[in-house]
Amino acid sequence: MFKNYLNLFLCLIFITSCGDNISPVDSGLENQIFHFGNGSEPQGLDPHIVTGVPEHHILIALCEGLTSSNPKGGEPLPGMAESWTISEDGRVYTFNINQNAKWSNGDKVIADDFVWSWNRVLTPSLGSQYTDMLYYVEGAQDFYDGKINDFSKVGVKALDDNTLEVVLKNPTPFFLGLLSHYSTWPVHKETVLKHGSIDDRNGQWTRPGNFVCNGPMQLKTWELNNKIVVEKNPFYWDAEMVKLNEIHYYPVTNVMTEDRMFRAGQLHSTYTVPAQKCPVYIEEGNPNLSIDPYMGTYFYRTNTLHPVLKDKKVRKALAYSINRKQIVDKVSQCGQKPAFSFTPPGANGYQPKTEIPYDIELAKNLLAEAGYPNGEGFPVLEILFNTSEDHRKIALAVQQMWQANLGISVELVNMDWKVYLSRESSGDFQISRAGWIGDYEDPNTFLDLPMPGRGNNKTGWVNREYEKLVNQANQTLDQEKRYDLFRQAESILIDELPVIPIYTYVRQIQLSPDVKGWDSNYLDHHHPKYIYLERD
Amino acid sequence: MLLIFLKRVLAAIPVLIIVASLTFFFVRLAPGGPFDSDRAVSQEVLINLQEAYNLNAPLSEQYFDYMSGVLVGDFGPSFRYPGRSVSEMIFTGLPVTLELAVYAILIALCVGIFSGVLAALKRNTFLDFIPMAIAMIGICVPTFLMGPLLVLIFGINLELLPVSGWDNLPGDKILPSITLGFAYAAYIARLSRGGMLEILGQDFIRTARAKGLSERVVVTKHAMQGGLIPVVSFLGPAVAGLLAGSFVVETIFQIPGLGRFYVEAAFNRDYTMILGTTIFFSAMIVFFNLLSDMAVMLFNPRARD
């Protein structure tokens, strides 16, 4: 009797599974359908509301800004603007809108679409979280803060249908890079207003069937927590370049599930690689493992208002007694690079010249000078981190290094993500782990963070000289002089160490060899119009 | 029986109101808010965001607004997913979770009752030991281990079934249903064995056999009716547990069910979503418990007193 049931069960499996056993990766190759592991369910598809990397992966296919990301990194490429001119003082940008640029419903993209869209981003009641991206535009912050009510006084104007003029507060050399960030991209005015008001966060315009945008793909279906399908947009100005017919985005939150999906041929690319599998894949020489440099820094924040940590000698002692090489080689083990500067080296040609030595003697002396010889009398500090096995391992290594090298004890405190954020923001921490990923390819995206009054500073550190140098750099047009000023600022930062850099991130994914046109770049922006599927 | 049913339904209303009220205040006590993110927003932006969701109003006003919305079936908008209402998200995830639960419970019932009854009938033989040992493994092995193991065997090594998804590829519902069903099958097997053993030793079974009835009739008509009462009482909480507790299986198999929304809502401090799903699951638990009590009364007249 058991045998009968077992046979029945196996037959059932056989019948259901042998109908069409071709894997999605194989069938995708024939139909140019790209199966993409996308981390988590996107918050939404409104470029003015959402924040996050999974959202960016989808929006880069659906919409396009004045410029578009360069697949090989570096200077942005033309997008909705086919060309532009910059005034001598670097404050006035005149964009010539591509005359073939169309929305996915066939309407022409005009300069006023950008004016209306930026007005929308800066409307306070919309609650956009990336308004500061546009604060470089003259009058933008005043409009957001309610100091001016007339948007025509903000420095963005449509001179005619095809010409957009943007006036900046100061020369901002990275402004073109900012424009490839989705918060500055246009939305289709008529569609948004058809489904709600200008400041309606809950408008239904982003639903399949309603969604209109101007990117290489258009929204086909959206099954919540299951998958989002985008298909080729025939109205895209560069449609000839687009080879993919569809992209299927899967919000796979569990990294092990994603790994299994890739191994079973259900995905062409994964969002990440499980940390414990990365060293194994490196050792095995897994040809699907792709590790690229990524513009991000893993670091420890110190609370400079804390009675012990306010002494820079203590912060230096802590930083100099961390063996970064050992952490990347033995703990993170996935190709990360030890960080000796806060800004990752090579961001748009910027090379910081700072050093953070691993020098136990020097660290001990510094601690002794601070009044704690051999760690005596040093209070037990806490390292705060959000619950994650990877963060715990690094914190354990740092704890052990400080114990062995300085003779001091620290406690590890792991908290749920929101509790961790809340404690960091309210200054209720001593040392906390953090990470920062660049929004655009320029050192300013990092060096702006420790500026006084910035919400992401969180360390309580205020240094007017640093602030002056960063501000000065952002008003300097000559790139070399500008980078020199940034280097000086960075030297102050690394001398003061309110942030203790640990390593520079890498982007580690599994990528099918069928995927072509997937170039490595520092921001990990992969424009779908360059990607296609082909088997060697 | 109708009176009992109505009484229980009426008693459920204050339970749900208390659950909703406690959840409303407790989620606000938890540190961190829905708009905290690693890219901190300025105070002005935060105020505007809170304004957009009426979070700047006094708590009492927010509470009465929310509760009056719930009374007309409006659970409010999700904070995490702009443009989505909580009701819409619940009703998107619910059919998937229900379908998974139905398959799992069917597998659990078929496998569990069959092996439990068999083990009781063949007491102290291999046909008792083996199914009960498997049941013990089923109880001990958690779904987060069982799922990946089944995936490794049937999905990756034998390449027979998809490793994840729901309604995306042929056969992708098999492994999650078995994973979830197996844990419950193990409980049901043990409960049915215990229930059957108790009944099989009773006088009326001896009488039935003495009357010359066939063993099949004795077991199916007389013994199982009483022997499976523990299983029936277990079914109510089990179905509710399946609905609310399918999170692990939904995550392992990338299933777009309600369980994932529930847990992620708590991590995201998506207040309205936490409230909506908690109220919904509470209602489900109350309802299925009621249903199982009714079923027990139907099977066992003594329980009606």
TrEMBL record, chain B:
GO biological process terms, semicolon-separated: transmembrane transport
SUPFAM superfamilies: MetI-like
Family: Belongs to the binding-protein-dependent transport system permease family. OppBC subfamily.
Chief site of localization: membrane
UniProt KW Ubl conjugation keyword: no
GO cellular component: plasma membrane
InterPro entries: BPD_transp_1_N, MetI-like, MetI-like_sf
Cell compartments where the protein resides: Cell membrane
Keywords: Cell membrane, Membrane, Transmembrane, Transmembrane helix, Transport
Name of the featured protein: ABC transporter permease
Domain of life: Bacteria
Topology versus the membrane: Multi-pass membrane protein
Domain ABC transmembrane type-1 positions: 94-292
Species of origin: SAR86 cluster bacterium
Transmembrane segments: 9-27, 100-121, 133-154, 174-192, 231-253, 273-299
